[in-house]
Amino acid sequence: MSETTSAMPRIHVLDPRLANQIAAGEVVERPASVTKELIENAIDAGSQRIEVDIEAGGARLIKVRDDGVGIGEQDLPLALARHATSKIDSLEDLEGVSSLGFRGEALASISSVSRLELISNAQDDPRQGWRVVAEGRGMETRVTPAPHPRGTSVAVRDLFFNTPARRKFLRTEKTEFAHVEEAFRRQALSRYDIAWTLRHNQKVVHQLPAGHSPSASERRIASLLGNNFIEHARYIEREAGALRLSGWVGLPTHSRAQADQQYFFVNGRVVRDRLVAHAVRQAYRDVLYNGRHPVFVLYLTLDPDVVDVNVHPTKHEVRFRDGRMVHDFLYSSLHHSLADARPNGGDRAASEVAASEPATAEEAPADSARWQQQGMALAPSSDRHPGGERVRRFMQGYQALHPGHEETLLTPQTSTADKMPGEAQSTVREAPMAMPEADPTSAPPLGYALGQLHGVYILAQNAHGLVLVDMHAAHERIVYERMKNQLAATRGIDTQPLLVPVSLAASHAEVATVESERDAIAKLGVELDIAGPETLLVRQLPAMLAQADPEVLVREMLEELARFGRTHQVEARIHELLSTMACHGSVRANRRLTLDEMNALLRDMERTERSDQCNHGRPTWTQMDMNALDRLFMRGK
After folding, report:
1. How many helices (H) and strands (E) does the chain have?
2. At CA 393, angle to CA 387 and CA 397, rounded to 5?
3. Closest residue by Cα to residue 470 from 612, 626, 352
4. Given 373, 432, 599, 637, which is the most exposed site by the fewest CB atoms within 10 A?
5. In this predicted model, what pLDDT tens digit does every residue of 470-517 receive, in sequence order?
6. What is the secondary structure of 585-625 as a DSSP string?
7. DSSP state of 63
8. What predicted TM-score, i.e. pTM, was given to this entire model?
């Protein structure tokens, strides 16, 4: 036996204090994580009011007080013991756990790195109550009487006082409190029926009354996330079997540079899940500006038995028994909700217009047909435009694959109105079409065109005031959605065998994915063969993607299939090409339009899904109401 082996220390049981401090490394990251754990205990106690007091960003004091059921004298010594809980008794309870806290480690871990005081009363008599104190020692605790109203108060002082290496990693007071406030915000958004108060250094930061109505929920969201969130969000409520999704999703035109207003709750528990993030990202794929992040507050409710919340020490992640079903439900719900993002909004008259008129090119009404005849159909782009040759070849392939569609989408047309040479054109060229005098509110949502501004924007008048429309962006979205509808209406994805199969070096995991997902891959129009333990052969691709890089497409597709059980890579690539076609073929700046053409464009916008933004996520129109216009000219001052 070597000297090194003989010198190896013997196996021994860790000191309870050291074991608790190691566990605290998983649960207690910073003051915000302590706040989260204490608030979750207060929610599980059935509280109707929760107050949080913070001092020095939480480094000096974190105090959470609730009016819940409280803890009896006989149970109080166990409250700070490891693996002691009142929330589960058996494996069956763990598999269907519905409470927020259940591990029985939080208070023990927190008390090992702080000076913790817990006072609780399970009686209605405020003269009753008991206190237990722990100061980073072992688990020896002493219970003493302490008057307290019904409920529990937990005070955590001098966090990491006995672990200076951890304390020096704390950030500034402002930074730590920002994390605490975010933890408070998440919990306050999870329960609207609880009244919440947050104070920092004795100053009230948030005071949120309890509410049970939708308007009360919206007021709380506005208080926590800002009025802009509610003003630019759409309420969603969808149900499929045992799955139910509700909440608010931000319109694509209201996005952020950071993913800092994304809140997703599973059975009341806030989570950050890759599957959820992927479903949301796919739903916003062609309506969000590049580099921007959507905003949402969403609540998913399902049977606790089909979701595992015990997969992460901080309970930030969950695992669904059928992740593919959950992913599809989330994607479908958000996708259809965002499809309604069009100028008719929730306006009754506009909804009737949208419901009564077709949305596809085959069923286009008379004004759209006239609009196409007068020169606004999609025309092949010039080869001088960047990417024009690639688009021209693709258009030819599309015509060959889908004969008959070129009449409405791809036929070059000659406009009856020529472009203005040199400088951009002026504004109004014809007499404006007046609003109906008897009932102005019966006008369409985007109103009636007045004219063009510099050949770029359409000016229109509706019941609220002035509407400005980016005609290229609007036409681009209309053509793009029409092409997607026509493609979906065909018999499926047309495929094209490769003249020479492409060989790919693959990992064992990628080969296993191909083996297990053969049917899903075949439905996408891709034919993959396993040529060896680490080799794949690409024999066939969708015809529309004949010019794509097979290796990049297949690898991205397999990665999504392995991680999420679904892939949208093929659909995304096809839609990307359709978007390019729509962009290059849409009406350009300085194109002179008649009032009939402008009004036809406005009506098509009201019918077209996602027409509030173009294919690249930019807004297509904006509204200036009469009050805003009056303020510009100081009318009524």
Report:
1. 22, 22
2. 140
3. 612
4. 637
5. 999 899 888 888 878 877 776 566 788 888 899 999 998 899 989 888
6. HSPPTT----HHHHHHHHHHHHHSTTTTB-TTS-B-EEEEE
7. E
8. 0.72
